[in-house]
Write a structure and sequence with these properties.
It contains no helices and 19 strands. It is mainly β and 231 residues long. The two termini are 30 Å apart. Strands 1-2-3-4 form a 4-stranded antiparallel beta sheet, with no helix packed on it. The protein has a 4-stranded antiparallel beta sheet with strand order 5-6-7-8, with no helix packed on it. It has a 4-stranded antiparallel beta sheet with strand order 9-10-11-12, with no helix packed on it.
Length: 231
């Protein structure tokens, strides 16, 4: 299991993957306040690997799970009765790692998409109540790998995404992006060292001036806090 979210004390969702016939397939479980139970979840094909990495709910009848199918981004919708593959799913050479919903008309999903030159670049998709659409996101360089792994919204006008970018072939440094009014820009983020890999994998916000990013630095835990700047 890779992601979990709770709508209430009697409705939570956890997503991940299971191996069926030697192929990774989606796995979704639901908490009803007493027990966890498997819920049927679709796959692009039984012969194609399908994995889910993140899940978020705007309401009890509007939830999204994101991940990847075979070389393509995967989005699944919960309508209150069943999970289905979203018609906007399928961005090529891409993976979605996390999703966050501020309301029924504002959700963001983030991840990575490979370019035709096989350089990984950030991927951000936005839900506005009727469909998903890719929106412009920032990268440190068109020749550097840029990855986003976490996303959270403090309000409808302030969302954050975390990940890392690569310098050279092996050194990673933190990457934090901020959305204000739908435009994503790179925010200054600290690293423990410019010669040690630093990566951020998750982010959460309690308020507009209280967000946290977590990850690793040189194999040790890394925690960064936003108040008026990341530190």
């Amino acid at each position: 299991m890779n992601g979990v979210t709770c709508v209430s004390s009697t409705e939570c969702w956890a997503v991940g993957h299971d191996v069926v016939g030697g192929v990774d397939q989606t796995l979704i479980e639901e908490w009803n306040g007493t027990t966890w139970a498997l819920v049927s979840s679709p796959n692009t094909a039984p012969s194609q690997p399908n994995l889910l990495s993140g899940v978020a709910c705007a309401s009890a009848t509007t939830c999204f799970a994101v991940g990847q199918g075979e070389n393509n981004a995967l989005i699944e919708d919960w309508s209150g009765t069943s999970w289905t593959i979203d018609p906007d799913s399928g961005t090529s050479l891409a993976v979605l790692s996390s999703v966050s919903c501020e309301s029924a008309t504002l959700c963001y999903a983030v991840g990575t998409q490979a370019t035709i030159t096989l350089v990984d670049q950030t991927l951000v998709a936005r839900w506005e109540g009727s469909g998903w659409a890719t929106v412009t996101s920032a990268n440190t360089s068109a020749t550097q790998n840029n990855h986003l792994f976490g996303v959270a919204c403090a309000s409808a006008s302030e969302c954050w995404a975390t990940g890392y970018y690569t310098i050279g072939s092996t050194l990673n440094q933190t990457l934090i992006e901020k959305s204000t009014g739908g435009t994503w820009t790179i925010a200054t983020s600290p690293n423990t060292s410019t010669s040690t890999s630093n990566e951020l994998s998750g982010v959460a916000c309690a308020a507009a001036a209280e967000c946290w990013g977590v990850g690793t630095a040189g194999g040790q835990t890394l925690v960064e806090e936003w108040t008026t700047a990341w530190a």
